[in-house]
């Protein structure tokens, strides 16, 4: 959908009055700095603020759901909502390489299965890969298998025995087809080298290796060493190792082909991936392979500081009014567990209170009446710390100004004045000056003077 397209009529969905969203200054608040939705300023319909890429937002996670909140002010209220991004078939299957190499002994019996590298399709569900097919030939066909995580992978099945003396190489085209309408496809070439007799395949000491790694492990650090042996002799018994990383073309691991040591080749990120499934392959000199699986669990490290996101700021605020909402803000932390838990505080010596309103949202309110004549401005520092080890802290400072109300009466500089004037004076004779002050500001401090009727009738109205 393009930017500006209609998403929802929240006035109807929330049972509000026409114009209430505008009157209450409604806002859409997403976690982080991205703003995927906004209100149309004319209709107050909820519309798309930017084009959405489901694969960028959610990867392979399905359903792809973005949580957000609708904030209504005056009176304050939050609504929790979710935006589901529906996949379209905008990606074709891709294999990790243009060519696969298989070395198969000529004595391999029909029915033998050879696992192939699976293709990747960034789309999900029915738009993902549905089947594999191989070009027509007399020796092989392809089976499409389902992995435990729902992904489909191909297996090459030998139908007719090979004869190296008749044909020492074969080239087949492997095609992956997705479930779109129309479907998209991707291809790779399988090069098959027919070998002489090699009747033992490498076997790993374990079928499954598991390891846990902190996300801040340095590049080059050793994760684990795998080991396989082959009962054959000579080149047929020499084993080399490789990784078949089918979850992502750019997985952050590398293996020493001779020793089986698996090390990090790039810095891990728990917030991006928590688990990796890697197929480890042992290849002997005759082209036979053995496989095992490596499961890598990434452990979270407190490497993200909390964030403070200000939703609204009410400044200036009038003096003498307690309980005024000054600001509404949210706090978040991209880590997990204790590393994600945060505490929020402000300085104790300020006349303000911090109140949690809902999950990770806070309001800043005045604690009692403020006096502009005592202080006209406050700098309030919001401190947010997570519960990790060591703790990470973020500070956000907001400035709040205090506006004046007319809460101070004028005061004369003296309680009484004595002025002397000669009789028979001429009109408009200057007698003296009286003065008063007002501690308010602006028009509230402007003073108008007037004379009340004299108490003594003999004085007349000569002033």
TrEMBL record:
Looking up PROSITE patterns in the UniProt record yields:
CADHERIN_1, CADHERIN_2
Q: Where is the Cadherin domain?
A: 96-204, 205-308, 322-412
Which terms are listed as keywords in the entry? Calcium, Cell adhesion, Glycoprotein, Membrane, Repeat, Transmembrane, Transmembrane helix
Return the protein name.
Protocadherin beta 13
Q: Which InterPro entries match?
A: Cadherin-like_dom, Cadherin-like_sf, Cadherin_CS, Cadherin_N, Protocadherin/Cadherin-CA
State where the protein is found.
Membrane
Among the Pfam families in the record, one is Cadherin
Q: Which domain of life is it from?
A: Eukaryota
Query: What positions belong to coiled-coil segments?
Result: none
Q: How does it sit in the membrane?
A: Single-pass membrane protein
